[in-house]
Amino acid sequence: MMNRVLFIGAILGVFSAVAQEDTAEKLRDSIAPYETVINLEDVFVFGNQPVFRNEEQRKKYELLKYRVKKVYPYAKLAADKLYQIERTLDTLPNNRQKKRYTKKVQEEAEARFTDELKKLSRSQGKILIKLIYRQTGDSAYDLVKNLRSGWRAFWYNNTAWFYDLSLKSVYNPLEVEEDFWIEDILQRAFSRKELEVQEPAFPIDYEAIEKKWRNSSKE
Hints:
It is elongated and about 55 Å long. A hairpin with a 5-residue loop joins strand 1 (37-38) and strand 2. Helix 1 (4-15) packs antiparallel against helix 6. With 219 residues, the chain is mainly α. Residues 1-5 and 14-43 have low confidence and may be disordered. The protein has helices at 4-15, 55-91, 95-118, 122-136, 140-147, 150-160, 177-191, 206-218; strands at residues 37-38, 44-45. It has one domain (4-218).
């Protein structure tokens, strides 16, 4: 059975180049206190805590926050490097050179990230796959398929099911409650400069989504 690091590493390996900058600071696990007023390009005003239905939901939120802050930097890096790789691929004259280039990128990225990815839990891997969709607009499955081969994507996806993961997972905070809480965590972390802002690959109206789920919690 393939180790989970191989299929998560394949995601990053397909569209990640060797990072030149030190990402240690971006991977910190500390949880900072909430602030009351946040200034962004679009101004959001957050309370000291989001509103929870019960204590169990609050505890789940705190755990989810830890996981999101752990894996978001990987998703951001994936989107950054995907853009760079696509630009490079456009300059290569034939498929042979493109395949050689993507293989080299994958090998370099796996060498760079394998030790870090081994430390990710299954729950963190699930969130990483969702955030890759948020930052690139494509599922991890489609990215692997488009940049390497359909057979490779099929194998990675079916291996992932052994760990209760799917590389076809998408990110939909309007319809999926966990995704809404992930978005809430990201927006709060961006506002406190705990995570580096990167715009999602598709429009996300946080205010509308937050209003929907706030009203839903009152029902």
